[in-house]
Design brief:
The protein has 501 residues and is α/β, with parallel strands linked by helices. It is built from 16 helices and twelve strands. The strands form two sheets. A six-stranded mixed sheet has the order 5-4-3-2-1-12, covered by helices on one side. A six-stranded mixed sheet has the order 6-7-8-9-10-11, with helices on one face.
Length: 501
């Protein structure tokens, strides 16, 4: 027995272990570090005296884990430090304090099965982790960031399994592989090595097979504009027109005549050409002949007195021919939950005027000269099983984002990885434009064909892949089926435990 339960300052050690374990996420991908410190926490849980103590161990480890994984969220408050700076310390710890709750039950299950075989414990723990991730994706509108399966993001080959089991399934496989270490400690050497090698071999073989694709470019050329405007200037009243002209000038650089459409990021302009003949005249200069400009902006619906975070499609006459209004809004960033219980002066961080209204979900847009496509705005891309209309499947997705809120942190890299995951799961090309995040074109196999780096200024001209979409098993079964399977595994193992008892 290792007697880890007797180490001094156990809670501090668990909290630090959780922080270090979070380095398994993008962009570090220190998966061995994640494995080591998760194992450390579970070995301490093995020595817990009861379920209550196991719950505390899970919570403290989870507190550190999610504080480390979500530290960058607090950076959004620094953009308007005078107004929101006082909340910064709270924002650093609040995500960890809340999301740690999702690790309580997994650690309690681990302790509950302490007298069963190692593989029963491992299967049950992996299953309950997936179920908790599934709940995290929809509870209180959901927050699907940094699911454990995304730790495979260091390898496009290994990520291909998401086309079958999705990110939920990858989380299950990651936990099983990591806890082969635990099986080894419990002297299940042969089975531990066999399981690890079998999963690794199957994932690698499938990934290599799937990436043997004919990835020829099509004749659909897109120009992505990334001006890298500082968030502090983005809504500065004296800078609004300069920002717009910056977008227009970059859009008109050499080669503009060769592109089918131009893409700007989330809320790229404060001026909606549909509301002003002057700005319609200005903005149409950025539209290629017989093509389109797709830009993020704020759209006010006077009839319903509603403000939307939108993407507008503008033709070469300056007319708005289509639009998409963001459906999945950011709590506290774009609207205030339970507003009727809060003071009237409380306002969303990303929009201090009023709460945004909720738009139509799964909107597929059809335009002359382009394959039909869907649109997502920023935060929406992080949700598995919630990004595409499968009854009227688009050929590609446009994702508009603005990661300027988070500065030089892990957040923008994790956001880009979420787009890769959705491309693989759904089998669609994703064209991503970010004001100063990471703009990229991602093919249906999750491969980044070209990109503009974090805070890099410029334009990206690229021809979309000829094969814009492919069929995937995950797109047919969805995340609900994966969660049901995990629940079934947990149920069967628990029944086995009770029969043995």
């Amino acid at each position: 027995m290792l007697q880890l339960s007797k180490i001094k300052h156990q809670k501090t050690a668990l909290f630090i272990a959780g922080i270090l374990a979070s380095f398994g996420f993008a962009p570090v991908y220190a998966v061995p570090v994640f494995a080591l410190f998760l194992l450390f926490a579970l070995l301490i849980c093995d020595e817990a005296q009861d379920l209550k103590q196991a719950a505390k161990i899970g919570y403290v480890f989870g507190f550190g884990f999610f504080c480390g994984g979500f530290y960058w969220i607090a950076n959004a408050l620094l953009v308007d430090f005078v107004t929101f700076g006082w909340l910064y310390p709270f924002a650093l710890v609040a995500p960890g304090a809340f999301f740690a709750l999702f690790l309580i039950l997994p650690f309690m299950v681990w302790h509950f099965l302490k007298n069963t075989t190692p593989w029963c414990k491992i299967l049950s723990f992996a299953s309950i982790i997936v179920l908790m991730e599934y709940v995290r994706c929809f509870l209180l509108t959901g927050f699907a960031w940094n699911m454990i399966g995304t730790m495979f993001g260091f390898s496009d080959i290994l990520l291909q399994s998401a086309s079958i089991v999705g990110t939920y399934g990858l989380s299950f496989l990651m936990i099983i592989m990591v806890l082969c270490l635990y099986a080894g400690i419990q002297k299940k050497y042969i089975s531990a090595v066999a399981v690890f090698l079998l999963i690794s071999a199957l994932m690698t073989a499938f990934g290599m097979y799937r990436l043997k694709n004919d990835d020829k470019p099509s004749d659909i050329a897109v120009r992505i504009v990334q001006p890298s405007i500082a968030q502090t200037l983005k809504w500065d009243q004296e800078s609004l027109e300069d920002n717009l002209m910056d977008y227009i000038n970059l859009s008109r650089k050499d080669g503009a005549e060769n592109v089918r459409f131009v893409l700007w990021g989330e809320t790229a302009t404060a001026f909606n050409p549909a509301d002003s003949a002057y700005y319609q005249m200005l903005i149409k200069k950025a539209v290629p002949k017989n093509g389109y400009l797709m830009t993020g902006l704020l759209r006010y619906d006077e009839q319903n007195d509603a403000l939307y975070n939108s993407m507008s499609v503008i033709d070469d006459e300056g007319q708005t021919v289509a639009f998409y209004d963001k459906n999945h809004l950011v709590p506290f960033g774009e609207y205030i939950p339970f507003r009727k219980f809060l003071p009237s002066w409380v306002s969303p961080i990303a929009n201090q005027m009023a709460d945004f209204a909720q738009g139509e979900k799964y909107k597929t847009i059809e335009l002359t000269g382009l394959p039909k496509f869907g649109a997502l705005i920023c935060y929406e891309v992080i949700f598995p099983d919630e990004v595409i209309n499968r009854r009227d499947k688009p050929q590609f997705l446009i994702v508009l984002s603005n990661d300027g809120w988070y500065g030089k942190s892990f957040g923008p890299y994790q956001h880009l990885l979420a787009a890769k995951m959705r491309a693989i799961e759904e089998g669609v090309t994703i064209v991503r434009a970010a004001n100063n995040g990471i703009s990229a074109v991602i093919n249906p196999f999750g491969q980044i064909k070209t990109f503009l780096g974090l805070n890099e200024r410029g334009v990206l001209d690229v021809n979309l892949p000829q094969k814009l979409s492919v069929s995937t098993i995950y797109a047919h079964i969805g995340g609900n089926a994966i969660a049901i399977v995990m629940g079934l595994i947990l149920f069967l193992v628990t029944c086995f435990k009770m029969i043995k008892s």
